[in-house]
Specification:
Helix content: over 70%
Largest sheet: none
Number of domains: 2
Oligomer: single chain
Number of strands: 0
Strand content: under 5%
Number of helices: 12
Structural class: mainly alpha
Length: about 280
């Protein structure tokens, strides 16, 4: 299959997959399958998917480097735009919950810190989605990269919003923060280490430890829970898996997949060379 056809099918499959969460949510809502508080559940679901897709979009660059598969770069923009659309849906469903009273919505956004920062992150994501086209890239030239660098602080702010609205149950937010730490640490690693097993192992350790720090610090500073209890929970079998364990598992999975990919490519190359060698 040619590279152009591969990219076409990859883009098509990506578009379908990106639409599935929204379609499933709409169907459940229509069928009264969202429980007694459908608007609240839909608000949380769209927010969760926005965070997931933001992390996936940021993962495309390291995935392209680690698996040496160029077509991945061609779906990064679609995933980022989809993340922004889910974030917009997150806001619109919240507005619906407020009975479309924009005065109340604006007042709540100004009064409540987690809504303020969430709205700020949304504005940045919408701006990045609008300017993600080739036309805007040509028009903004060097400023385009400067503008789109804002995705990193926007994701960080969105994660703080995630933590605050999670209240006492911050497991998913801490897991997302740990994955974000992995993605950012990969970007600051020396280029020669980014695709090595040593570099990936170092990332696994650092991202896992940072996840522990994020979780313990949040519980200590915000919920007034002894951070040492949270640290100890990471060694309690009855409380597993903790967010740090999940981050470690994902990091190790990346290591394994990279190893399998490289072993498979080496085996294919060896067989190809053998098949093309003239026989005596």
């Amino acid at each position: 299959m040619s590279i152009q056809r591969t990219i076409f099918w990859l883009r098509l499959v990506t578009l379908i997959v990106l639409c599935l969460p929204a379609a499933e949510l709409a169907w459940r809502w229509h069928a009264d399958g969202l429980g007694p508080r459908p608007v609240t559940l839909a608000t949380h679901a769209t927010g969760d998917w926005a965070v997931v897709l933001l992390l996936v979009s940021l993962a495309m660059t390291p995935a392209r480097a680690l698996f040496d598969w160029v077509p991945l770069i061609h779906i990064r923009r679609r995933i980022g735009v989809a993340a922004a659309l889910y974030a917009v849906a997150h806001l619109l469903i919240y507005v619906l919950d407020q009975k479309w009273n924009l005065v109340v919505v604006a007042t709540e956004i100004v009064k409540r810190f987690y809504l303020t920062i969430g709205f700020a992150a949304l504005l940045v994501l919408v701006a990045l989605a609008i300017t993600s086209t080739n036309g805007w890239q040509r028009q903004l030239k060097r400023n385009w990269k400067r503008l789109h660098w804002l995705v990193y602080p926007a994701v960080a702010v969105a994660l703080v919003h995630f933590f605050i609205q999670s209240k006492i149950k911050i497991g998913e937010a801490a897991f997302a923060a740990g994955l974000f730490a992995w993605l950012m640490l990969w970007r600051v690693l020396p280029t020669r280490l980014r695709t090595t097993y040593v570099g990936l192992a170092l990332l696994a350790v650092c991202a896992t430890l940072l996840t522990v720090v994020f979780e313990a610090s949040w519980y200590g500073l915000v919920n007034n829970i002894d951070p040492m209890r949270i640290l100890a929970a990471n060694f309690d079998l009855q409380l597993m898996p903790r967010p740090a364990h999940k981050v470690a598992a994902v990091s190790l999975l990346v290591l394994v997949l990279v190893g399998v990919r490289r072993a498979g490519r080496a085996l294919w190359t060896k067989r190809y060379i053998q098949s093309t060698m003239p026989t005596s």
